[in-house]
Amino acid sequence: MVRLLILGSLFLPLLAQDEVQINTPYVATSAPVVDAMLQLAHAKKSDVVYDLGCGDGRIVIEAAKRFGAHGVGVDNNPVRIQEAQQNAKRAGVSNLVQFRLGDLYNTDVKNATIVALYLLPDVNIRLRPKLKAQLKPGARIVSHNFAMGNWKPKKKEVVDGEKIYLWVIPHHFHF
Hints:
Elements: H1 2-21, H2 31-40, E1 48-52, H3 58-67, E2 70-75, H4 78-91, E3 97-101, E4 114-117, H5 121-134, E5 140-144, E6 155-159, E7 162-168
Parallel strand pairs: 1-2, 1-4, 2-3, 4-5
Antiparallel strand pairs: 5-7, 6-7
Helix pairs in contact: 2-3
């Protein structure tokens, strides 16, 4: 019994760290869904696309390739960040995109005109206060598969069996 308590107390800090790392598993978004997300958000050259939990960077890379938009990808996995940087270089858009190792809850998104998400529902809900406080009116939030709690989306589509949601930040916030 004493050994279990000692081992538990040794591993609890590690478990707490890992919990932050795995609160959303990495699952890549398919090319048709990426395309649909960017179309639903009406991406254009003047946009700054933030992808919170960017994985291999495919959403911001595609926004840069197709529309000339600038992009910022944030992920808490250094392997994914390195992969995203390599993918941007291969795609020839390194001058338009950047990838940051970081905690999406502490990421400043004030410059974003589009925020892309493929996160679990509880993570989306935890992000709402940040998005509400930092995004300017007219900014768009586009989410793959998961809603934002009781925020009613402006549009919802299904592509290849996957749901895509769009919200637009209003001048007077009342989702």
